[in-house]
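Justification of resources, computational component.

The compute hours requested in this renewal are based largely on the per-chain cost of generating structure records like the one below. Each record pairs the submitted sequence with a full structure-token output. That output is archived, and it is also reused by downstream analysis tasks.
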Amino acid sequence: MRRLTIISLIVFFISVVNVYAEPKRKTVTLEKFTNLVVEIVPDLGTRFVFPFVLDDHKESYIPFTLNSTNVVFRTDRQKERNSFVVDIDRTKVDEAFKENMPEYRGILFITAADYLITIELRTTKKLDDQVTDIIFKLGDLEQEVLIQKVIDKRILALEADYQQELEKVDALASQKVLAKIGELIVETPKIKNIKEEAIFNFGRDAVVLYVDRSVTYGPYVSFVYEIENEGDSGLSVSHIRLLQTNEEQGASLELPSETSLPPRLMADQKYTGVISVTADVLSEDEYLTLEAITNKGKIETKW
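The structure output for this chain reads:
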């Protein structure tokens, strides 16, 4: 009798070892509404594996929520992973059933991306019914759509981040400008008269470009100019630039400058503008040209 008992234990041990040596896996194709039943042996558990990373908040991950209707079935999920584990929480089992656990049931409601998954959980004592891994997979089309959604969501997040950084840069630039204005106010500017004028005739219309003076504040030089429309039709300016010319070499170089374009000028209207550069780009031995491109043609003044 004792010999028979020992043999029975050995056979049982071998069967258990075989179960653990060859875990059972089940593959499930995700659909819009996915339903399945999973049986779990107490003290074992089932891992649910998804084809994407699950998270509640990360922009680049898949939105995911999980709700269980029975506390006996414990869920263990780590952030930024693509899986979670369900097992039996013996602390939630009634004391009267600690030794001989009855069958418990519960429902897992899972929302992952656009997939609604309902899993009926059941306890079982049959090792053959235990599934170690439930592996969800996507069809080819669903996978492409899901990947595109993740990409689109990430692009939106990057654009939002970029906009925030841009606003920070604008705020910092405004602070720098205010600080620089404060510095320049206490300085006495150096003013140099230029008084160069050029008149351009376009049929019966005429346009006057006049450079009045330069004003130097520390490292900055601004040239004050006027554009006057002496024609009957409106005048629009699309581009204004400052050129520096070396007469010996016969080469002109556009200087890095900042200015604002004038509004559309009607008959006999005049606009006063300023184009500014840093003093280090200017050479005393070279000529300057203020050039403007208008809807009537190019105009320029040299000094």
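Helices lie at 2-21, 140-185. The chain has a mean pLDDT of 83.
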